[in-house]
Amino acid sequence: MTLTQERPLTYAKMKGLVTFISGRSSFLIINTFLATYHCFLFVFIRVKPSDFDYLKVIGTGSFGKVLLARHRKEGGYYAVKVLDKQMIIKRKEQRRVMVERSVLLKGLKHPFLVGLHFSFQTPKTLYFVLDFANGGELFYHLQREGSFPEPRAAFYAAEIAAALGYLHSLSIVYRDLKPENILLDSEGHVMLTDFGLCKEGVAVGGITHTFCGTPEYLAPEVLLGQPYSLAVDWWGLGAVLFEMLSGLPPFYSCSRLEMLENILYSPLRLPSGLSEGAHSLLKGLLERNISKRLGQRLDIEELKEHQFFASINWDDLVARKVRPLFIPKVVRINQKMVRNIISTSSRLVLIVLSFSRPVLVMCATSLLRSHCNLSLPPSTTGRRQPLPAQPFLDSPS
C-alpha cells in the first residue's frame, strides 16, 4: 500500500506538542506537554491494557480490532481500537495511523464526532480509547431497512453536515464519508468515526491531491487526479444521502470499473417519489463542476440555507435538542452478561493483556467523564474498504 510523501506531520496542538515517530520494528510515541499562560488543565495518567475489561470484539480491520471495554475503576464503557504495530509497518500505514491520532488529539468537541479519551501503547500494540456509540453503523440499518423515509434521511444528513462543517472549520477534509463510518448512539444521533484518511491544513479555498477514499463515494475530481478541496466531502454527503433515500449509492454498478466510469460520465438519475427539495439538494451536492457544487463557496452555510433543510433549527440540532426520528434498539449490559462475555473471551483478553508495560499518556481532565446507556452494537458484514492512499502518477504502474 503506497502512501503519498507529504510534508512531515507536526502536532502543535492547543493541548500539547506530540511527536509520533515510526521505526522499523516499533513505534515510539513521545507525549510532551506544552503549556501557555492560558493553561488548559492536564494531568498525566498511567494507563495500561489491564486497566480495562475487554468484553467483545465489535469491529475488525486490516491491522487491528475494535473492542468493547469497561474501565475497571471508573466503570465507563469505551470502544478500544487495538492496532498491531508490525502489521501497520508491513502495510506501510504509519501515516494513516498518525493522521488519525493527530486529528483525535485536536480534542474534537462536537456532538456528532467520536472523541478520544486515552491513547497509549505497549511494545507491540497501539491503543485508542474512544467513545462507544452503541446504536450500530448506519450501514447496518440501511442493510436491514433498505432505505429511509425522507424526514429521517434529512435528519441524518443535517447532523453529518454539521460534523463535516466543524471539521472544515478546523481546516480538516474528511475524505471517507460512507455509511460504515457513520455510527448511531443509543439516542439515535449520528457520530462520525475513523479519521485515518483525513487531511489537515486544507482551509476553505485550499486544495490537496492525495488519491484516497472508498470507490462508491469518490468525487469525480479525485478520480481524475485533479487537485481538490473541502467540496469532496459535500459530494460524499450527496452520495450518502442518495443511498439513504434509494438504497444504493449513485452511479452504482457491480463492476468497479463501470461504476467509476459512471461517476465521471453518466447522467445522475434521481430516485422517484422524492420532494423537490431533495432533488435540488442531490443535484447540488452531486455536481461534477466543482465551481457550481453546493458548499464549494461558503461551505456548510450554503447547505443551511437550502430548502431541503428548511425545517432544521441548526442551533438546536447541534445542541442535540432535535429528537431523532429513530431510536436504535440496544441490548443493555448487566453484570451477568459481563461475566459471561469475559469468561468466553478469556483467550482474547489474555492476548490483549499480554503486553502490560504502562506508558505515560496525557489526557485532559475534561475527558474523564462517566458513561451511561450502555449496550452492544449490532455486528455488520460486507463492509466496503477504502482504496489505498497513493500519489497520482503520469502513467499507470
Automatic annotation (TrEMBL):
Presence of the UniProt keyword Nuclease in the record: no
GO molecular function (one): ATP binding
Domain of life: Eukaryota
InterPro entries, per database record: Kinase-like_dom_sf, Prot_kinase_dom, Protein_kinase_ATP_BS, Ser/Thr_kinase_AS
SUPFAM superfamilies associated with the record: Protein kinase-like (PK-like) (SSF56112)
Pfam families linked: Pkinase
Occurrences of domain Protein kinase (ranges): 52-309
Transmembrane portions of the chain: 27-47
Transcription regulation is among the record's keywords: no
Annotated binding of ATP, by residue: 90
Keywords, comma-separated and alphabetical: ATP-binding, Kinase, Membrane, Nucleotide-binding, Phosphoprotein, Serine/threonine-protein kinase, Transferase, Transmembrane, Transmembrane helix
Protein family (similarity comment): Belongs to the protein kinase superfamily.
Name the record gives this protein: Protein kinase domain-containing protein
Originating species: Xiphophorus couchianus (Monterrey platyfish)
